[in-house]
Design brief:
This protein is mostly helical. It has one domain (about 15-25, about 40-130). The protein is built from four helices and no strands. α1 (about 1-45) runs antiparallel to α2 (about 45-65). The two termini are about 20 Å apart.
Amino acid sequence: MIRNQLRRFLVRQGQKISLWLGIVLILSVGLIHACDAPDSFRDAVYKGWLFYLNGAGAIVAAVGILRRKPWGWNLGFVIAACSFVGYVASRTVGLPFIAAEPDAWLEPLGVASLVTEGLFVVLFVGTRCLFKK
């Protein structure tokens, strides 16, 4: 009896922590991209707009996560995963109309972005495995 109550309590607390951590991480991803968007227009106009869309999408995803909607987590996953892949591509093979930047792997905003995106993806996968109904 007590063991089941403790388990339910820990699951509820884990879900609350995951929810707020997910919100903070996806908003961080969006904020990093929104802050870097003005400079990204110099590389290519589409890159600047994608960075602003990343920020707006992150806000929408955070609202969905806050309302406990699965689409919020799914949108956040798509944003974080695509941003991660885009960063790696921009440093290795380049993006359309933008040459690869192999020397830019350790830009501070880029590293912060990779860390937050990676953590969000890990949290997304973890919550799907631990808290599935």
